[in-house]
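Hey, I'm writing a tutorial for new members on how sequence and structure tokens pair up, and I'd like a real worked example in the thread rather than a made-up one. If someone can provide the structure for the chain below, I'll link this post from the tutorial.
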Amino acid sequence: MKFIISGGGTGGHIYPAIAIAQELKVQIPDCEILFVGAEGKMEMEKVPKAGFKIVGLPIRGLQRKLTVENLSFPFKLIQSLWKAWKIVKDFKPDAVIGVGGYASGAIMQVAVWQGVKTLIQEQNSYAGLTNKLVAKSVNKICVAYPNMERYFPKEKIVFCGNPVRKDITNLESVRSEAFKFFDLSESKKTVLVLGGSLGARTINNCLKSGVNELLAQGYQVVWQTGKIYFEEMKNFANTLNNKNLYIKDFIYEMNYAYACADVVISRAGALSVSELCLAGKPTILVPSPNVAEDHQTKNAMALVNESAAILVKDGEAGNTLITKTLELLKDENRQKELAENILKLVKPNASKEIVNQIVKIIK
């Protein structure tokens, strides 16, 4: 059997796609999988690292203001549809799976035109534009949040949760390895800081101002800055020259990162929230305000309302994030409560349920 999986642009699209591919390989070991992404986007690097083949389309998104790039959009779209048509025709997939992102729209539309079975997966509580555009044409829609009939035809929706990487379960078994990997002490409490694959300016600036206080009070910090802010934050970290601080633009070994964390500071993207539930770590969420319909705050509130996370608003983070982090690090009971409650919200079999739906539409 053959499958095309398409989407990308951010880790929030790419990692669910990889998790679906891995589950397809578990259930159908001899299947062939081809990823289709957008040229120059992060999926072109991340997917091969996960062991899958990927081809790129020249597609680009529309900018909200008038730019030269917008003028080339129709030509890029036509080019992408033409290339997508050839990919589907030559590869002859049994099904095409879309996870959102520009490339996903082109390949899904072509798959529909060619009569191939199609399924989309929506990670957020606020549906992305690409998925909304193709929803009426596809066979099945897998969602991670309830009440998604606001965006999609109700009869096509299946509530599955978000597929996440399998290696962040059973973290206790790799805890010692994790501390060795980061060259940190197993006897000290550790804060894991995540701002998404590209980074979060607010979180990085808060750490730049307050990481010294965390280190001075005897804590360790594993800090993922994101690609955009890495050079600036690394130069700052070099001035501290502190062995209790590990700083990187992107951490591929997330099982190790979660395993050594006592407290996590994170944005509230859909994938991050799903992973944090699976990892079962006491978490402070700082939702990004720069997203459609403020959906990260909605993601965060789904946890906060269950006493499963602490919310710090982006605009207030400069004054409160480090203070709240220190308070949580010193409060063992609160850590225990948050960890227990966040574990209750996990949907660990999302990948399996999505693959079951893929198999069902083919049959």
